[in-house]
Design brief:
Elements (H helix, E strand, L loop, with lengths): L1 H13 L6 E3 L5 E9 L4 H13 L5 E7 L8 H9 L5 E5 L5 E2 L2 H7 L3 E4 L4 E2 L15 H14 L4 H6 L10 H6 L5 E2 L3 H8 L3 E4 L2 E4 L9 E6 L3 H8 L3 H19 L6 H19 L4 H19 L5 H19 L9 H35 L5 E4 L6 E6 L2 E7 L9 E8 L2 E6 L2
Parallel strand pairs: 2-3, 2-11, 3-4, 4-6, 5-7, 6-8, 14-16
Antiparallel strand pairs: 1-11, 9-10, 12-13, 12-15, 13-14, 15-16
Helix pairs in contact: 1-11, 3-4, 4-5, 10-11, 10-14, 12-13, 12-14, 13-14
Length: 429
């Protein structure tokens, strides 16, 4: 599983982006449009950094943001990167109906030009850290947001008010009137038309924005997360992490109680690797994780005993308590829906206590019936039976037990009796 996780991380590193639409990339002025939808985590941060590095000197970076904030990254560092970029950075709260909250408000204020859209909202700025209930970086982020707003000619007091307890989201026109953003635009084309020809400061120089023109003058490029990065971004949510963890445990336990290693084991390893990655991103409660793993272990023990007994009852209690604790005690914004937890607790009880146990019993009964037909047949000892070892009967390998003392390997044997899954044999004279 560790190797699989390393493969996923390496694939993400070498294939982080997937341009989905591009035109006029040989033009003198290229605008990179990056869509940021949802929590801003490592994969989104890496996408922003990569596109910022690839944007040519005469170009511009346009971030289309609809986000509740950051998770597992340094929001202050990302904001400073955008604020100190050598090219103009425009942050658009879009499409219409979008919203920026928490530390995403800080990123909005780091922009050269801050833009909203009809029906969208800005704020509140708390909690700034989606992964912590105590919000340790809140004051620093709020202060930096005010500084960036003042640097770009916006109202630092209005921005600071967004980070106060009980603050409400600002609709488009009030956010413009309050000096939180410069303007509103319903779409990217309208936005580009509005800012074309404006002179702004970027990288210590005055830059005239060229956001319209023929392909020799202006180019437009849309970028999004690549396939691997999109998967890693999708699993970096509490619900996805929990579901992958449970499905991975189901599949791996199924492989443990079955002979050989098949498709379920491969799927279980993949699910478990993705769950491990998400656990490194999300602030999970390790006691809750331990209870989930312990509950799965108790289930497995009862499956080995071919029963639904006291261990399954204890396993269900541990599994349920651990599931609610895994993310429930971390922060209000990081949680799994209770109905999802109850569905998987019931599913685990049905899977381990009934389905898997019944399947193993049926398989063993079929094996026993097949073995019963071997009584009286002649085979050969593969190795020494002293008193147990491997025997071959009718071309199949079985576990054998000698009834007539040690039997050397290569000796012909005859099946005398079947005890469970073991053939009791004697040397054939």
């Amino acid at each position: 599983m560790r190797r699989l996780l390393l493969v996923l991380m390496l694939a993400h590193a070498v294939w982080p982006l997937a341009p989905v639409n591009a035109q006029g990339l040989d033009a003198e002025h290229v605008t990179d449009v990056v869509k940021v939808d949802g929590i801003i985590d490592r994969t989104v941060r890496d996408l922003i950094h990569a596109r910022l590095e690839d944007t040519p000197d005469g170009g511009m970076l346009l971030l289309q943001i609809n986000s509740p904030g950051t998770l597992g990254i340094d929001a202050l560092a990302l904001a400073d990167t955008l604020a100190n970029a050598t090219v103009p950075v425009v942050v658009w709260v879009g499409p219409p109906g979008s919203r920026v909250q928490g530390s995403a408000v800080l990123l909005l204020q780091s922009a050269t030009i801050a833009v909203t859209s009809p029906g969208s909202g800005i704020g509140p700025g708390t909690p700034t850290d989606l992964g912590r209930g105590d919000d340790p970086a809140g004051e620093a982020i709020a202060a930096r947001a005010g500084e960036l707003a003042e640097e770009h000619g916006r109202d630092p007091e209005a921005v600071g008010a967004l980070f106060e307890p009980g603050a409400d989201a600002l609709p488009p026109q009030p956010s413009i009137d309050a000096g939180v953003v410069e303007l509103a635009a319903p779409s990217v084309p309208v936005l580009l038309n509005e800012i074309d020809g404006l002179e702004v400061e970027a990288g210590g120089r005055t830059v005239e924005l060229v956001t319209e023109g023929d392909p020799d003058v202006f180019g437009l490029r849309f970028s999004e997360l690549g396939p691997i990065a999109r998967v890693l971004h999708a699993v970096s949510s509490p619900s996805a992490s929990y579901v992958l963890l449970v499905l991975g445990l189901w599949a791996l336990v199924f492989e443990l109680v079955q002979p050989g290693f098949g498709l379920a084991g491969v799927a279980g390893a993949l699910f478990a690797a993705l769950a491990v990655y998400s656990l490194t991103v999300l602030p999970a409660d390790w006691l809750g994780l331990g209870l989930i793993l312990g509950g799965a272990g108790l289930y497995t023990a009862d499956v080995k005993l071919r029963r639904l007994g006291p261990l399954s009852v204890l396993g269900t209690a541990a599994f349920a308590f651990g599931s609610f604790r895994l993310y429930g005690d971390v922060a209000p914004t990081i949680d799994v829906a209770p109905w999802v937890i109850w569905a998987f607790v019931a599913g685990s009880l049905a899977f381990f206590g009934f389905a898997l146990t019944a399947a193993i019993r049926a398989r063993e009964q079929a094996v026993v019936q097949r073995q019963s037909g071997l009584v009286g047949l002649v085979g050969e000892a593969v190795g020494d039976l002293a008193p147990e070892g491997q025997v071959v009967v009718k071309g199949a390998m079985w576990q054998g037990r000698s009834l007539s003392g040690p039997i050397p390997g290569g000796t012909r044997i005859r099946v005398r009796h079947v005890e469970g899954l073991v053939l009791e044999v004697s040397a054939e004279e």
